[in-house]
Every structure is written in structure tokens, then in C-alpha cells.
Amino acid sequence: MATVTNWIDHLSAAEVQGAVYPGVGTEGILVLVLAVIWIGWHVMADMQETSKSKAIARKRPGSNDWKSNVTDG
Amino acid sequence: MTDQLSALTTIFTEFYYWITVVLMFLIHVGFCMYEVGASRYKHHQHTLMKNTMLIPLVTVTWFLFGWWIYWAFPTGPGLAPSIMNESAALITDESAFSAAWYLPTSDLMGTNLNDHISGVFWAAFLLFSWTAASIVSGAVIERITTFAFGILAIAIGSVFWTIDAAWGWHFDGWMLKILGYHDAYASGVIHAIAGGFALGVLAVLGPRIGKFSSSGEPRNIGPRNPWLVTIGLFLIYTGFWGFYAACNIPIFDLGPEYGMEGVTFWTATNIYVTPTTLGGITMNFLMSLSGGLLAGYIVAKGDPFWTYSSGLAGIICASAGNDLYHPIQSFVIAMVGVWVAYNLHYWVERKFKIDDAVGAVAVHGYAGVAGLIICGFVLNGYPSSGYSVGAMWVGTDYAPINPLGMFIGAIIMFGVLGFLPGWILAKILHGMGKLRIPREVELAGLDYTIMEDAKSDERSVASSSR
């Protein structure tokens, strides 16, 4: 996984390789992971938000009921 | 970096942009404070989370495709050939500033010892993207779903603003070449587009319950915490300094860049690589802020909310030409922008029943459009690019800055890339039933459950003896 194992060898090469993060060459997989997490987040966040909204809608609190829930601080 | 001068120039430039990124973070802190201050108590926490979550959402998508779009789209595609490869296609070849280097799989999109600049430049543009999305966020508070806002934030932050930046901000952009478009500090490419996008969303989203009486008269739902609003706007001003600096290239030798034989001319440049000075733009920033504040105080009859917002609107209006204006020109232009923004806000509110909760469409959209149009007259005849003298890159010429080109540019920014996509996307989300929160939730307050749980916890703690 390590791209660099010896800095002296790395920096004294005729052409220094710029990318030094672990797993150079696996960028495609990393991007796929990021895309899956991104889309997945939207799906999960939407499910949570819809469920919370439905719960409040079922209760039908009045527009001033929140005032009795203000904490003392 | 094999010699000391190039090393110093590179590391200085890297550090310069890094500082601007940190400064611009304050814009987002300011927007969060401002929105919470403007919202009502029962919506505070949701309002804060909505604006906060745009940070990761826009960042991830900016990494995946936003940055690539900026480098790929300067030609339109199909509207004007690139000065780098003389093709009007998307710039995805092997040329120096091609989008090919900024695919998310590129090895320049990470720690790379051969490239110190791409990362900080990526970050500076990302902070611009957050700003574009955050402008929309304020307008739609207290009734939009977080899901819908997330999608809209990605659309404006990682797609539409970056297309307009490629067209009107990139040194190779077709709008410079054909229209003579000039927008040094983003009156249009950030503010007009975000204001237009917000207006498009608002037209579909509708007003907050109670905003208009049954006869259609607008009611004022003023900021609930003026101190948060005040500090928020001061922080936005502060971050705006960083934004201005980030729109510049700090040190550049224009002699060889323009192909002038034997000429050396070290200077700061704007984003179009034409010369300006950090000192000059700082004077203009302060004078336009002052013009905006003074005008805002008068037109709003001393209302603090509008006076602070007018400081911002003043800077936004003068920004298109603040690289070249005289400070007094900048000052007067800011005053005009504030007058336009304030009066249009109330006219649109009454006429079209648009509920823009924080005046974002006015401060960013109308002031931005006014700034572009004014810039076309005041800077009429200036070159839109140094490359029109063309020796380094032979090829396409650039139109000079002119009133008609800037007017068309303003329509593209506000209408074509702002209002239209905002309206269409909001329509789609509305059709899916995902745009607006249920009526019961809006009345009860988005934070109802959180507050109820907190109260319940408080009671439990208060009644415990150990």
C-alpha cells in the first residue's frame, strides 16, 4: 500500500513521482466508494426526515405549543 | 521547483490561497448565524442544520464533478474555440489547463509533490460554491425540506455556478470572447446566479404560512435575534475580504505571459489575468461597503436589518468592476445597487407574492444584475482579456467590455443559469412531493420534536435526586 518507503530514494529519482498517498492507482475504487456514500446519505437522510415529519403531522401540535417545550437554559 | 525564486513564488501562492480559504470560511459561519437570527425560535435548529449540511454535500460533489466542469466547459461547448487547443469542444484533451487533470480519479486530486497549487485553488473555488448555495439557503427557510435543499444546493453549488464560472470567469471563457464579459469579483458569477436560482425556487415553493394576508398584503416576519443577524453579517463582510483576495492571482509576470519580448512586469492580476492591485481592490471594497451602508440607512429609514444587508449589496453591485474602478465610482455604484435592490424586493414581493425571507434575491440577485449592467457602461472599451493582444496563445480574439455584452451576460447569469434551473428543479421536487414540509410541521415548528425531547429530558433531570 505504501507509495514511498524511502524518501531519499524517492526524491533523488530522475523524475520524482508526485502522488505520494497510499494506494496510488486505486483512485477509481476510492471515487466509487465516495459516490456510494454520497447517494446513500441522501436516501437515509430523506427516510429520517420523512418519518419525523409524519410523526409531528400525526400529533398535530398547535402553532404555539412549542412554547411549553422551551427549556430553562 | 529547482530554483529559489520559483520555489518562493509557488509556496507564496499556495499559502496565499490557503489563507483566503480560511478567511472565506467565515462567510459560511456568518450565513449560519444570520439565518438562525432571521428564523423563528421553533425553526432555529433545523435552519442551522440545513445550512450546515450544504458544506459536506457541495464538497463531495465538487470533488466528484464540480471542479471538472469548470475546466471542461469554457468553450460552451460549441460556442467559441479554446485559445489552448483551438477546439470548441469540451476541454478534455492533454492541454495545459484541461479538465482531464481534474477528474476525481486524477493523481493531481490529492497530495502531489509536483503540484502545490491545484489543491488550494480547488478549495478556494469550493468556498465560492458554498457561498452560492448558502445564498439560496436563506431565502427558503422555515418551509423547505432538508432533502430538497440538499439537491438544490448541489445543483447551484456544484453544477450551475461552475458552468457560469467556466463561461464568464475562466480566462478561456466564451463569454469573454464573444460578449466582452467582465466580472472580476463575481457580481454575476456568484451573486446574480444564486439570486436568480433562489427566485426560481421561491416561485414554486411559495410563501411561509401567514406571510400574506387573505387580501394579499405582505406581513413583516422580522429577524428574531438581531444580534445574531448583526454578527453574522459582519462575519460575511470579513469573509468577503478573503473572497476578493481569492479572486486574484497574487504574483505574476505578465511580460512573458502576454508574449512581450524583453518585458518584465510583476503584478497581482484578477482572475482574467489582467493587472490590478490588492491595494486598489481593498480601497474599492471599503468604499462600496460604505456606499451601500449609507444608501441602505436612508432607503430603509434606519432599519438595521436592511442597512447591514445593504452594505453587502453595495459591495456586490460594485464587484464586477472593482478591479479597475476609482473608489468614488465604486462608492456611487454601490449606492445605486442598494436603491435598485431594496425597491425591487418590495415590488416583487407585492406583485408576485414572493416570500424571500432574508432578502437574498434582492441583495445578491438584483444588486448583482445592476452591477453587471453598470460595469458595461463604466468599463466600456477596456479589454476583457490580456490575451487579446495575443502572442503566447495565437488564435481567438476577445471582445472588449461593452454595455450590450454585459447586459446579455446579466441575463445569462440571473435568468438562464439561475432562475430557470431553480424553477425547473423545484417543480420536479414539488412533483415528487419532496419540496415543502407538511403544513402541520410548519405550524408546529421544525424543531418541535427536538424541543419536546429536550423538555422531557429537563424534567427528568430536575426531578432526580441523585
Average pLDDT over all residues of chain A? 94
| Oligomeric state | heterodimer
Taking pLDDT < 50 over at least 5 consecutive residues as the criterion, the unreliable ranges of chain A are: none
Total number of distinct structural domains of chain B: 1
Strand content of chain B: under 5%
Calculate Rg of chain B over CA atoms: 23 Å
What is the number of E strands of chain A?
0
Cα Rg of chain A: 26 Å
Provide the CATH architecture of chain B. Answer: Orthogonal Bundle
Spell out the CATH superfamily of chain B. Answer: Ammonium transporter AmtB like domains
Quickly give the structural class of chain A.
mainly alpha
Instruction: Specify which chain pair forms the largest interface.
Output: A-B, 37 and 40 residues
Q: Profile the largest sheet of chain A.
A: none
The total beta strand count of chain B reads 3
Strand content of chain A: under 5%
Percent range for helical residues of chain B? 55-70%
Order of helices and strands of chain B: HHHHHHHEHEEHHHHHHH
Dominant shape of chain A: elongated
Plain-language structure description:
The complex is a heterodimer of chains A (73) and B (466). Chain A has 73 residues and is mostly helical. Chain A has 2 helices and no strands. By secondary structure, chain B is mainly α. Chain B has one domain (4-453): Orthogonal Bundle (Ammonium transporter fold). Chain B has helices spanning 4-38, 44-72, 118-139, 146-168, 174-179, 187-205, 226-246, 254-257, 278-299, 304-318, 327-352, 360-378, 403-431, 439-444, 448-463, and strands spanning 249-253, 266-269, 275-276. Chain B has a 3-stranded antiparallel β-sheet. In chain B, strand 2 (266-269) and strand 3 (275-276) form a beta hairpin. The model of chain B has no long low-confidence stretch (mean pLDDT 94). The A-B interface holds A 16-21, 24, 27-28, 31, 34-35, 37-38, 41-42, 45-46, 49, 52-57, 59-63, 65-66, 68-72 and B 41-42, 57, 60-61, 63-64, 104-115, 145-147, 150-151, 434, 437-438, 440-441, 443-445, 447-449, 451-452, 454-455, 458.
